[in-house]
Structure formats: structure tokens, C-alpha cells
Write a structure and sequence with these properties.
Order of helices and strands: HHHHHH
Strand content: under 5%
CATH superfamily: DnaA protein, C-terminal DNA-binding domain
Helix content: 55-70%
CATH architecture: Orthogonal Bundle
Largest sheet: none
Structural class: mainly alpha
CATH class: Mainly Alpha
Length: about 110
């Protein structure tokens, strides 16, 4: 039995998974557009990256052309998004796509 820690994704893998599972392009994720579907996808990225990638807010933000305070704000707002069943389904779809263990990003 393998006793090693689970392998967690790199930021690039999270970005790719978010774009794929939320049907958006990378340039949309990195843009300043505020359409709900794009904002929700960014929040999914912030949540998974913060929980799984062992990176600072600055590193997470820099990867998609956002600053650390934007990531912090998005991460905090994401805590309330779990009440939205559609958003939760999108998060679960992305987590599954990444192959992360169940409960990793709660």
C-alpha cells in the first residue's frame, strides 16, 4: 500500500481544469470581465489553488494576472458559494476532473 501523500496539482493544471470544466478560455479567466460564469470560474480556481497548491495568494493571483487582494477577496466570498448548488456542482466537476480525493477542497 502506498503511504505517500496524495499528489496535488500545479497551478497550470488547476487553470486548465477550470477552463475545461467551466467551458471558458484562458484569456477569459485572466480578463477583467465580470460575467457570472467567468467570475464563478475564477472563484473555483481561487478555492482549489488555495486549498491544494501550497502557493501564496500572490503566486495564485500572478498566474492569472490578478493581485493577491483579489484572490483573498475571491477566496473569502467563495465560502458563501457552497450554498449555491449549481456552483457546488461546477466545483465538484473540476475537482473530479483533477482527480483529487473526495473532500480535498471543503
Amino acid at each position: 500500500m502506498d503511504q505517500s501523500k496524495p499528489k496535488f496539482p500545479r497551478l497550470r493544471q488547476v487553470v486548465d481544469a477550470v477552463c475545461h470544466t467551466n467551458d471558458i478560455e484562458l484569456h477569459e479567466l485572466m480578463s477583467n470581465r465580470r460575467e457570472r460564469r467567468i467570475v464563478d470560474a475564477r472563484f473555483i480556481y481561487y478555492w482549489i489553488a488555495t486549498k491544494c497548491c501550497d502557493k501564496s495568494y500572490s503566486e495564485i493571483g500572478r498566474f492569472i494576472n490578478k493581485d493577491h487582494s483579489t484572490v483573498m477577496h475571491g477566496y473569502k466570498k467563495t465560502k458563501h458559494k457552497f450554498l449555491d448548488s449549481q456552483w457546488s456542482k461546477r466545483l465538484h466537476k473540476t475537482v473530479t476532473y483533477l482527480g483529487l480525493p473526495e473532500g480535498t477542497v471543503k
